[in-house]
Amino acid sequence: ACPSGGCDGVGLLQTKGKEETAGHCRGFEKCPEWPMPYHSGEYPKHYPWRSLTMKDFPPGFMLGVGTAAFQIEGAYNEGGRGASIWDTYVGANTVGMPGSVCSEAPCPLNSVMADKGATGNVANNHYHKYKEDVAMM
Question: Side-chain half-sphere of 53: how many Cα atoms within 13 Å?
């Protein structure tokens, strides 16, 4: 996919700074120099991606998605769910939950947590809205 040998194993992205045409770096108008670091507070004004279609991928290629339970589940203290390491990190009230290290509320927050009080207690509430979530897919 990248005749120069500069792209990664699936023919995407990296070109070691060589100018290539869009056909050689799928998803890009032209192959970018890689990596492209930005200084703190600086953000790109333009992203060089173009729309992809299934024709841009090899035959049989399958797309997939992933997420973390803490990001979507919610219902942190329902259905017999045990305390997770993230519940402990954010200081969720895990008293009495299986695996909890907190024996008395309020449970302590991690000292390096930037957004104090932000928990996954409700998150995207997939636990209660899974039928709606699946219907949207």
Answer: 2
